Amino acid sequence: MKAPKFNYVKAESRSHALQLLDELGEDGRIIAGGQSLMPTLNMRLSQPDTLIDINKIPDLGGITLDGNIVRIGALTRHVEVANSPVVAEHLPLIAEAMPHVAHHAVRNRGTIGGSVALADPAAEMPACVLALGGTMVVESVNGSREIAAEDYFHGLYETARETNELLVELRIPAKKTGDISVFMELAQRHGDYAMAGLACVARINGNAFEGLRLVYFGSEDKPTLASKAVSAVIGQAWSEECKEAATKALEDDLDPMANLQGSSAMKLHLQKVLTGRALDTAIERAEAA
Amino acid sequence: MNKESPAPILDRPNSYVGRTLSRDAAKRAVAGRGRYTDDINPARTLHAAFVRSPYGHAKILSVDVEEAKQQPGVALVMTGAELAEMCTGPWVGTLTCFDGMKSAPQYPMAVDRACWQGEPLVMVVASSRAAAEDAAEFVMIEYEELPVVIDKETALDPDTPAIHPDLGDNLAFEKTIETGDVDKAVAEADIVIEDTFTFGRHTAVSLEPRALLAEYDPGTERLTIHTSSQCPHMVQAVFARTLGLPEHNVRIVAPDVGGSFGLKIHTFGDEIATIAASVKLARPVKFIADRLESFATDIHARENRVRGRIAVTKDGKITSMDIDIRSGAGAYSQYPRTSVFEANQILNITGGPYAHENYRASTQVVYLNKVPTSQYRAVGHPIGNSVGESLVDQAAAACGIDPMEFRRRNVMHDDSYPRIGAAGIEMRDMSHQQCLETLVERMNYDALREEQEEFRKKGVQRGIGIAAFIKGTAPGPSGYYGAGGAPIATQDACTVKLEPAGGVICMVGVTDQGQGVDTVMGQITAATLGVPIESVRVIEGDTDAVPYGGGTYASRATAIGGEATYQAALKLRAEILEIAGVLLQAAPETLDIVEGHVVDKGDTVSRISLAEIGRIGHFQVFELPNHVQPTLSATHRFRLRDALYIFTNGIQGAYVEVDIDTGFLKLLNHWVVEDCGRVINPQLADEQVRGGCVQGLGGALYEECVYDAAGQLQNATLADYLTPMAGEMPDIEVAHIQTHTGVSELGAKGVGESGTGAAPAVVMNAVNDALRPFGGKISSQPMSPETILKALGKV
Predict the structure, then answer these.
(1) For B562-600, what is each residue's pLDDT tens digit?
(2) Is 60 exceeded by the pLDDT of residue B3?
(3) What is the CATH number of the domain that holds B76?
(4) ipTM of this complex
(5) Angle at B9 between CA B6 and CA B10, to 5 degrees
(6) Burial class (CB in 10 A: 0-12, 13-18, 19+), B99
(7) If you count Cβ atoms within 10 Å of the first and of the last residue's Cβ in chain A, which end, N or C, has fewer?
(8) Rounded mean pLDDT of B738-762?
(9) What percent of chain B has pLDDT over 70?
(10) Where are the domains of chain A?
């Protein structure tokens, strides 16, 4: 379980990294926190020609509030996100999700950009970014572009980022007054990849959902927005019947992939359970607010 | 408790025996100063990596190693056929005590056919492990895939191919025992319950993987092997015999061992290959299994299906039990300990706590194209206890009797020993009743039942589980290994020496893997000799130093090695007192040893120190009369005489909460009351029980080696094979009842596996207690959320 030989280049700056990415194309691989890449290297599941280490690039991390957008540099470690007062205040969904991201040791080293760039379908951050309607900023030698989360996640470990592009920043709309968010996931052991999970952002008026985004992870090939379940809920007074309608509609939104943790049917069942619980919780939180 | 102790010296006030002392080795380990096999790096060490079968079953058509040999840093590439030529012959993993057992000849690396995914085929030895792995990618092997046998249920069907055609079929072993008349008991019973239980494959997952460093010195023809082993003398015999080397020229050293759990009582083909490479190259060669290799080559265990039946009277008396076991072994029976102990132990212990006299058990062990199976902590007990205790719970429910009360009515009485258990094995010095009543008290059982009801009213589903158990510990020579013909010692020995400066060296055949065996032996020595614990140094894990012994397995270290140590220390003590008597002109029986000084009995004033006796005994021997020739060294060997095992007993309780919507479990509390006889070090005994429970809970909830239909192991990483972690584990409250065993003077029985043996049973019973109002029932492990949801009809 030793990595095969590879070349290693420490990128000194953003432009250096972009230049390397452009030159190396498919042969180059970015390493940030290394929490997912290193095991695959050691198991020889991936054999990149050159690792481009972006850890020392100075202006790729940090969390700032810019108007009503929270900007999170791609190299920001999970632990910094978890401890950030800006995130706690303006992105409570992410703050709630953070303790579920693996364990302390992984959070100390792993980065939010790495998580979003890898697009593991069971990871928390892609789901949160999508639920919050965030935007990914990617750069290449040809310039930068912004990609909405809806357009960013294409499938299993597939994203809209081109091989010569570096994910540099996440731009996520800050919580507006009255926004309610709920994050839930089910993992047999704390810190494991989720068997099923849900990131939910809602606007609630009295007992009814006025606006709602439900993003499921851990069951599909990518974080998945549910439209039919949302339609079944919007504008209705929240009730057991409404919950039943929403979970029924979820069958048309999701098509879970079976894995070692469970069958497709079980994952759908769990996502339904989480839907009911998350929406109950959202109503409770709205009442408490 | 014993009325009159046969070892009064250990019962003195402030005795080191019965006292919690921390382990020296723990301080080193937590400071990161442990010295494991991989920490030892002699000059010019080479590293081995292996090409392993990617198929569950395949014929090897050709092997081309030429390009691999040309790779940078490569010193040797060896094929299975080349290694076979260096061996005295293939292994055959049978023991004569298992009538009719058969196993195919097995070479350390496959020669012409690979029988499980992960079986070693070619070894590459190079300047670093990375270089060896790089070169291994250049080994070209042509395979022809053969049909795999994966399902134990169909392994004996006539149309299933035999993995080893010479054996005729895939049957490794079958056995049936019967006592009393089960059919009659069933026919006359008021209630008969039947169920079928299935158990997934597990593996040990020791934190330190298998590790071996072989250093052959062609000048002296001596071979020194550092290896992470529980049984240095056994592996000495196996390694030497397999490679045709004189046993006394092979030194085995087990340095710090980072967990073992039975895994490290075994020998593996890649280890033989590594040693052969060192002999061939006359250089140190190291092999450290990586995690992937650990999953794909360490012994597996626990894959069993058991049909069980219990017959009871309506007032709750068990009249019979019978079970039928289908046990899934791997492609070969593991040499030399075999792959049939597990099934045999299930047969020995199921329903073991109870007084019924009608019992039938049959088993068939079948070969599969999977990793070979063998002994793993609490061999067979988690299965036998889960089956027996689930049947008991179901019978209690059918009778409408509380499961604790049901057990109270059926356990063997504490005053009924010695007696023969239902499986025909002698039981003695046991305490089911006392353990049960202690558990009732510790759990606050009635109040807990009330609390459970209160929670139910609130829609929270909690379950209470009970599981009584017996555990075979410290096997004797009349049993399997001794009578079976294997080079595995069931006796163990200790040599205790008084050094010139008054220090004491205690050399034991039993070994430490982090559980504190060395600390325990030191406590016994210090207490028996009457010296401060600081003056005792324990040496273990080196065949050049310690007397021949079996090492640590089957919960035997304290029970067997402890008695040997106690008796050796008594002998040395007698010699010291005799010498002191001569020097002091006093009768030895009027003297005593306290805190390293010889004193008059009943007094604490030093008459002569042990350092003085050491000085005189080693240097100024002329101070003694000619007829006194000090040895200041004593050796004692101990073995069981007639007993098959020293059986221990106990009972566990569990309190769990089941989320009936998600199938997720929360373990709230766990209790163990067990009887390991005399407790030497309470904290170490407690932690053995706790660690054992956690290992059992891992198997009950998470762990399973999953194979697909082609014989590919699906989850050979720690991300996919889930082991228990502290966050999910309950507090585990431990209590000991100390009924000393009569087979030794020390009175200690085994303790290391008691947690593991019944933890799966008790948590399964607790889950089923929670599910009972919903009509759901679990009969398979691991109990994943999906298993629970299926039992509830939700998926």
Answers:
(1) 999 999 999 999 999 999 999 999 999 999 999 999 999
(2) no
(3) 3.90.1170.50
(4) 0.96
(5) 85
(6) exposed
(7) C
(8) 97
(9) 100
(10) 7-53, 63-173, 179-288
